[in-house]
Design goal:
mainly alpha
């Protein structure tokens, strides 16, 4: 099942729709977990380990799903999923040389994520069939 999540191609419109839908579903899942925790435990929500574990699980699933969207969108551009590693290169080199702070690392990763999303949302995919399948 996981392998099939990363196969094939995804056009720009479908990519944007799926990313927005994933964001909305994730948001409401977080709200549901938070609401249930408040109803069960009162104001001491953040100290609840089960609540934290559920939030981490939801976040991990959401990241896996959006990562698969990104890979399939790159396939539409004729690129492999390894291109997703490109935005973290400045971070890795900065951490290795220990020249940048952890807050700056987080800002760079955050900005590179937005730039990657915009690039994947705007760039036109290949019109012909490529190594990853036919256009959708």
């Amino acid at each position: 099942m996981l392998k099939s999540m990363f196969e094939g191609r995804m056009g720009r419109g479908r990519y944007i729709r799926n990313c927005l839908l994933a964001a909305v579903v994730t948001f409401f899942a977080f709200l549901a977990v938070e609401g249930a925790a408040v109803a069960m435990y009162g104001e001491e929500v953040f100290s609840n380990t089960l609540n934290q574990q559920l939030m981490i699980l939801i976040f991990a699933i959401a990241e896996l799903v959006t990562f698969s969207f990104d890979v399939r969108r790159l396939h539409d551009l004729g690129k492999g999923g390894k291109w997703l590693l490109l935005p973290i290169l400045p971070v890795v080199s900065g951490v290795i040389s220990l020249e940048i702070s952890s807050n700056l690392v987080l800002e760079i990763v955050n900005c590179s994520g937005y730039v990657l999303f915009l690039a994947l949302a705007v760039l036109k995919g290949q019109e012909q069939e490529n190594a990853y399948g036919s256009p959708c």
